[in-house]
Task: inverse folding
């Protein structure tokens, strides 16, 4: 657009007629350029976000106030009935519990491992770029492939890789999808496997920014490596840790692919007793399998508010941390 | 210089660290190795009391069976179109917006920038029901456009590019170009893009990988059976009447391969991108 | 500098423009290029169409056919979204009998095959099969019947021998007239043989028993009667009551199920004809001759079998209808019976000596034509409600819960009823 206008706007300036008219035309084009082009630069983002991000989220609320069938359309205004029903739905609370449980089981070990790995990477390792890339490899593998492969490794048969490993140390086979704890563990392993290296690199970046003098003075004080790690390293990178917790929270609350694939056929049910059905699986089930858009939209909104709440809590935490420092 | 480097010198890792790291890398690579092992064996090795741990010679047989049983090529083509288009559009649109936010003065700039920052964390996939309705109304169901449109540009990309442009492009350079008579689009092309080339290419790579691995939204608007993407087609292999482990794992391996190749080629940039993102985030 | 700048600037826009073009180009789904027509056939596996398709392409130059295979439930779920969206469906789509009533309600989205000469073909099929595929008193023909699934019991002769049970198929059939007899033999079996289940999974047992009843989850007014129809609970408890002891606990049609067949993890599998092919593939050549087929306890019944439909949104309805008619023509059904075990749904074929005399080497040369064909002509198909497909997964899960030892059969059944009612709330 800008190019065309600028090219055509000057009404056939005669080159021979001296600089004046050309300059004026140019100036006008320049003014347009200065005033309008910045908006043209930023507008695509706002259009895309508005149309495909904000509008659907707001519209979700409208849908949630109706009986609404995905295919047959709106079937009548019901006010907050969908929400009332949701808050009396044991499936919702179970999904909430499952989501939080898997989130906790996957996030905390993951971040602890990541800290440890970052600490090891933050040394004079030989071939350091090899190590750094190697820990990132799982993150490149698609979640679907992770889900497919790990679901086979955690298959409920005696001959699956996981049960074979258990048998090596003399333990019996586990029917992984059958129980709450074992299914949550299996799903968490997928999450941990995929994200630990990524978080380790983020911590590594933060650790490298820690002034070395802090370490030196700690060493002079005769602190062991262990104490140095906890008293110097971790406090210095606290904001980064909070950042990773925030990111993991947002991702964790929307966990979908891993449990879906772990569930196999009719994976949206999250196991025979919904023992690993997460909130997003529930959302998917109601939206696209049962085609109950109204109810699904209510789930969306609750999930949305939950994430917002978590974000605010995290934000407050960050504030407190920065003010105490 | 020497003094400084000793000041920066990290601890020297002992053999313990190397062992731990080696074990770790083994753990991260084992699932991939095992995928390859099963993919390269025929199905008869399954069900033995010890799982197969050595590659066999059936890799290409299994690959061709995957190609026969699911439409892998179409899915591959769709995934390539989606990932490439979104990568290019993200770079173009993010650097443009980032340029405006970093270097240009216009009314409402701070407010708009604040809006961008505020939207970084908005989980837009929660609007999936209306989004689906919209896409169907537009007649885009089962087309790659349905997957591409919502991810043409992201708040994260805009924010990241704004930072990169702010840090790497001196104001004087922009001014000089303008005095030279460049219009803004020219400045963007001649000064901004070359100036943040490396960050922009990392952004492109990230967008490409994210788009390649995306699953939730494509599953809904471009499901297998309508062409699908590599990921949605892959998810098909996992269960149902496809009961052949070698087939499943061959599919998984094929789905991972392109990104592994990309990763091996650009590992350094990707690693630096993750680490840079950390500092900025 | 000035010109190059403008030219370059223009080129940038040209590239952005090109990206936009790519978008629109992709938006309009790629049609057929050149003179060739490409038809797609979507099914959920086990149809055995790949060889037939190659022959069709040979005898119909200018037409290319592609088969798309998906998982059973997702296949049908996706079809309903594709129909609603008006895009994405294949030219010829297989719909299983359990899901057909649901799609009968949106018949407008399908080509009425009566407009493509279906009436002339009507006599090909068993009357009950034909009826399942039509609506509006037979005026609207939704689909052509593929196979039917009359029932039998597949059993592993090696495991029977180990348990001291007879292996001859007539003697095996004589072991059980009722399901209680069958379970009784099962208890004897598991006492003798360790490490193998009597049956593969209670899910398949339940489905088989349900298919022997006239009405299951819905009555003919499409009202849910799962909670009041005693047959449903009976079937559920029959399948579930001894599952902890007797079942090999292998999720139906999962990779573990296949691997279990290969390993000989179960002695019996209730098997409709189309399952023969699945068992044979799963077991592998090394197990050829180790399996056999006997009579199922109880009455005859039908499990599965599909219809080929032509969604209206396709670009080539005429060619698609022709292909669907061809794939379900007697010659092809005959071939499919030989190749994958899909039992023809056509009376002429069921009397055909070539079919009746057909034996299957893998199943110890069992006369599959006779075993399956005999019961097919007389059978009473189980009535399906329009939302059968929506509630089935809940009952499958309930049976899995029983096998996993999470719940008693009674409690699990009650939960399944509750979930079914919830699933039926809207729509």
Result:
């Amino acid at each position: 657009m800008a190019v065309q206008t600028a090219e055509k706007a000057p009404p056939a300036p005669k080159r021979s007629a001296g600089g004046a008219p050309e300059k004026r035309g140019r100036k006008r084009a320049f003014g347009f350029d200065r005033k309008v082009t910045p908006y043209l630069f930023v507008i695509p983002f706002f259009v895309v976000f508005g149309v495909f991000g904000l509008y659907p989220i707001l519209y979700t609320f409208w849908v949630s106030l109706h009986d609404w069938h995905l295919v047959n359309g709106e079937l009548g205004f019901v006010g907050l009935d969908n929400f009332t029903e949701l808050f009396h739905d044991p499936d919702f609370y179970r999904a909430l519990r499952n989501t939080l449980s898997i989130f906790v089981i996957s996030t905390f070990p993951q971040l602890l491992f990541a800290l440890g790995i970052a600490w090891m990477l933050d040394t004079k390792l030989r071939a350091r770029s090899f190590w750094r890339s190697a820990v990132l490899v799982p993150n490149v593998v698609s979640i679907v492939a992770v889900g497919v492969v790990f679901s086979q490794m955690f298959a409920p048969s005696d001959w699956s890789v996981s049960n074979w490993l258990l048998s090596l140390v003399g333990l019996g086979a586990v029917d992984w999808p059958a129980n709450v704890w074992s299914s949550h563990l299996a799903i968490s392993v997928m999450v941990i496997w995929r994200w630990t290296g990524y978080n380790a690199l983020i911590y590594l970046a933060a650790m490298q920014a820690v002034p070395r003098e802090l370490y030196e003075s700690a060493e002079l004080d005769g602190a062991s490596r262990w104490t140095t790690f906890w008293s110097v390293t971790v406090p210095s990178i606290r904001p980064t840790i909070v950042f990773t917790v925030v990111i993991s929270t947002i991702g964790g609350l929307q966990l979908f692919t891993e449990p879906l694939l772990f569930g196999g056929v009719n994976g949206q049910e999250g196991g025979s007793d919904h023992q690993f059905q997460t909130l997003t699986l529930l959302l998917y089930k109601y939206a696209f399998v049962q085609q109950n858009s109204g109810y699904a939209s209510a789930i969306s909104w609750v999930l949305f508010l939950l994430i917002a709440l978590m974000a605010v809590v995290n934000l407050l935490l960050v504030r407190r941390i920065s003010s105490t420092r | 210089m020497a003094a400084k480097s000793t000041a920066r010198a990290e601890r020297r890792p002992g053999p313990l660290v190397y062992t731990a790291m080696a074990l770790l890398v083994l753990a991260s690579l084992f699932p991939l190795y095992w995928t390859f092992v099963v993919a390269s064996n025929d199905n008869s090795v399954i069900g033995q009391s010890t799982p197969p741990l050595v590659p066999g010679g059936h890799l290409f047989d299994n690959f061709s069976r995957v190609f026969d049983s699911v439409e892998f090529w179409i899915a591959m083509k769709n995934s390539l179109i989606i990932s490439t288009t979104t990568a290019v559009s993200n770079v173009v649109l993010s650097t443009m917006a980032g340029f405006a936010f970093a270097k240009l003065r216009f009314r409402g700039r701070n407010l708009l920038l604040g809006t961008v920052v505020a939207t970084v964390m908005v989980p837009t996939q929660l609007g999936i029901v209306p989004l689906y309705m919209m896409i169907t109304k537009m007649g885009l169901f089962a087309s790659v456009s349905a997957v591409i449109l919502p991810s043409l540009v992201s708040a994260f990309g805009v924010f990241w590019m704004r930072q990169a442009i702010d840090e790497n492009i001196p104001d004087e350079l922009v001014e000089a170009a303008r005095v030279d008579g460049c219009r803004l689009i020219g400045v963007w092309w001649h000064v901004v893009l070359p100036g943040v080339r490396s960050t922009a290419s990392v952004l492109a790579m990230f967008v490409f990988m994210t788009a390649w691995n995306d699953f939730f939204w494509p599953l809904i608007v471009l499901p297998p059976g309508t062409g699908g993407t590599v990921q949605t087609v892959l998810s098909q292999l996992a269960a149902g009447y496809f009961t052949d482990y070698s087939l499943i794992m061959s599919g998984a391996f094929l789905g991972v391969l392109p990104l592994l190749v990309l990763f091996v080629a650009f590992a350094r940039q990707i690693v630096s991108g993750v680490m840079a993102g950390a500092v900025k985030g | 500098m000035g010109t190059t700048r403008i030219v370059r600037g223009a080129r940038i826009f040209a590239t952005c423009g090109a990206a936009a073009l790519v978008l629109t180009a992709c938006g309009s789904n790629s049609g057929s290029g050149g003179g060739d027509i490409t038809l797609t056939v979507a099914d959920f596996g086990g149809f055995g169409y790949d060889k037939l398709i190659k022959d069709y392409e040979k005898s119909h130059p200018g037409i290319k056919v592609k088969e798309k295979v998906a998982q059973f439930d997702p296949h049908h779920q996706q079809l309903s979204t594709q129909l609603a969206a008006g895009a994405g469906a294949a030219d010829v789509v297989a719909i299983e009998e359990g899901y057909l009533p649901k799609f009968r309600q949106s018949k407008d989205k399908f080509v009425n095959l009566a407009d493509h000469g279906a009436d002339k073909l009507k006599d090909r099929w068993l009357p009950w099969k034909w009826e399942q595929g039509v609506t509006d008193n037979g005026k609207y023909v939704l689909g052509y019947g593929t196979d039917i699934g009359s029932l039998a019991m597949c059993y592993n002769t090696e495991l029977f021998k180990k348990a001291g049970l007879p292996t001859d198929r007539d003697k095996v059939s004589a072991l059980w007239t009722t399901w209680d007899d069958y379970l009784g033999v099962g208890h004897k079996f598991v006492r003798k043989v360790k490490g193998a289940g009597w049956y593969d999974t209670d899910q398949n047992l339940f489905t088989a028993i349900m298919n022997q009843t006239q009405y299951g989850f819905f009555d003919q007014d499409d009202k849910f009667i799962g909670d009041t129809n005693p047959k449903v609970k009976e079937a559920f408890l029959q399948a579930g009551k001894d599952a902890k002891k007797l079942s090999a606990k292998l999720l139906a049609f999962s990779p573990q199920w296949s691997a279990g067949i290969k390993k000989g993890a179960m002695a019996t599998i209730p098997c409709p004809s189309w399952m023969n092919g699945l068992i044979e593939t799963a077991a592998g050549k090394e197990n050829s001759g180790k399996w056999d087929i006997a009579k199922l306890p109880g009455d005859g019944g039908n499990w599965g079998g599909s219809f080929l439909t032509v969604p209206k949104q396709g670009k080539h309805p005429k060619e698609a209808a022709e292909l669907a008619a061809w794939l379900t023509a007697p010659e092809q059904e005959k071939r499919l019976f030989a190749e994958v075990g899909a039992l023809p749904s056509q009376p002429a074929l069921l009397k055909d000596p070539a079919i009746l005399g057909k034996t299957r080497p893998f199943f110890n040369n069992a006369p599959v034509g006779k075993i399956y064909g005999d019961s097919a002509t007389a059978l009473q198909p189980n009535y399906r409600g329009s939302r059968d497909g929506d509630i089935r997964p809940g009952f499958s899960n309930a049976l899995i819960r029983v096998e996993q030892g999470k719940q008693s059969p009674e409690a699990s059944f009650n939960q399944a009823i509750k979930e079914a009612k919830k699933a039926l709330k809207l729509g």
Summary: Chain A touches chain C at residues 3, 7, 67, 69-72, 75, 152, 155-157, 159, 175, 178, 264-266, 269, 271-273, 288-292, 294-295 (CB under 8 Å).
